[in-house]
Amino acid sequence: MTLPKLFTPLKAGSLELSNRVVMAPLTRNRARPEDDAPYDIHVDYYAQRASAGLIITEGSQISPEGKGYAWTPGIHSEAQVAGWKKVTDAVHAKGGRIVIQIWHVGRVSHVSLQPGGQAPVAPSALAAESRTFDGNGFVPTSEPRALALDEIPRVLEDYRQATRNARAAGFDGVEIHAANGYLIDQFLKDGANKRTDAYGGSVENRVRFLDEVVAAVSEAWEPGRVGVRLSPFSNANAITDSDPMATFSAAIDRLDTYGLAYLHLVEGQTGGPRDLAEGNSIEALRARFSGVYMANNGYDREMAIEAVEHGAADLVAFGKPFISNPDLVERLKADAPLATPDQETFYGGGTKGYTDYPTLAESQAA
Ligand code: 8OZ
């Protein structure tokens, strides 16, 4: 039997990947509480998963203001860069490739997580009506304040600096988190963006912030090392858009001008159903992008092999299966059974449910 294309190499922009199985970005809330830096458990966790064609790290805040949950890592301080450097060295030593997902949560935050207990920032002063984790439990997201027009260059500079930091930390590239109801998605979708300046109103204006973030990041690093994740039809964090096909057609047309490493779409509801409302189409959006396409959301072995074999996707990102199967690529290749992840240990804690999932060979030896 010939090897399915899913297990064959691919060049994504400047990234040379050994196979097309990607570890999706997964928030695990295990950063060092005192400085939001990754530490030794992160080194083990990511190194264990180095056989992925590409690892995308958990979302990592570009600035203290960009933080929305307790114990998520950052990429804005020296300690964080030093912690991530150990992670990238360990992944590279095992022949893996790793990009960092750079993240600003916008309004999906709580005053207790913000510098000086300030209100979180957003395109408009509209609460997310979502929840976040403050270190003790789940709390309603706080009412944000609208970013002033003259503050936007400072936020763009935070993205630029986070990208420089990612280079210094030895990453192969960055993924811009523009999905799931966080800051960039808040600018894109008209349920969250009520601005009346150049960043709100028309589709063209709502796409402007995403476009400027991509331009800023591409100044700090070659665009062939930059990926972008969008979730056009997802209502994650209670976000809505009145016409996602129009919004995301325009967004993807802009993204297609940069020569990016890849476009990554969450197909359907984040971590939920893949069904789309009448008139919405992932295929139609994907067709607007001429570069590498990474598909995500609820893929199993058969769906992934099929999607790559027939060109519906170039790369497939797996989330939860990578939590409980560090050797996911080997298991998929062998059509071996997959271990089920324990939801109780998804967020927070230490090595339990993090670095203690055995490989198939280890579990058979035990
Ligand atoms: C789960 C829990 C907290 C954050 C996302 C970064 O949805 C997240 C996230 C997921 O993109």
Summarize this entry quickly.
This protein is α/β, with parallel strands linked by helices and 366 residues long. The protein has 11 helices and 14 strands. It has a single domain (5-365), classed as TIM Barrel, CATH 3.20.20.70.
Fold blueprint:
Layout: E1 10-12, E2 15-17, E3 21-23, H1 40-48, E4 54-61, H2 78-93, E5 98-103, E6 121-122, E7 131-133, E8 138-140, E9 145-146, H3 152-168, E10 173-178, H4 183-188, H5 203-220, E11 226-230, H6 244-255, E12 262-266, H7 282-286, E13 293-296, H8 301-309, E14 315-318, H9 320-324, H10 328-334, H11 360-365
Parallel strand pairs: 3-4, 3-14, 4-5, 5-10, 6-9, 10-11, 11-12, 12-13, 13-14
Antiparallel strand pairs: 1-2, 7-8
Describe this structure in words.
This protein has 366 residues and is α/β, with parallel strands linked by helices. It has one domain (5-365): TIM Barrel (Alpha-Beta Barrel), CATH 3.20.20. The protein is built from eleven helices and 14 strands. The protein has helices at 40-48, 78-93, 152-168, 183-188, 203-220, 244-255, 282-286, 301-309, 320-324, 328-334, 360-365, and strands spanning 10-12, 15-17, 21-23, 54-61, 98-103, 121-122, 131-133, 138-140, 145-146, 173-178, 226-230, 262-266, 293-296, 315-318. The strands form four sheets. An eight-stranded parallel barrel has the order 3-4-5-10-11-12-13-14, surrounded by four helices. Strand 3 (21-23), helix 1 (40-48) and strand 4 (54-61) form a beta-alpha-beta unit. The longest helix is centred in the middle third of the chain and has 18 residues, at 203-220. The chain is globular and about 60 Å long. The mean pLDDT is 98.
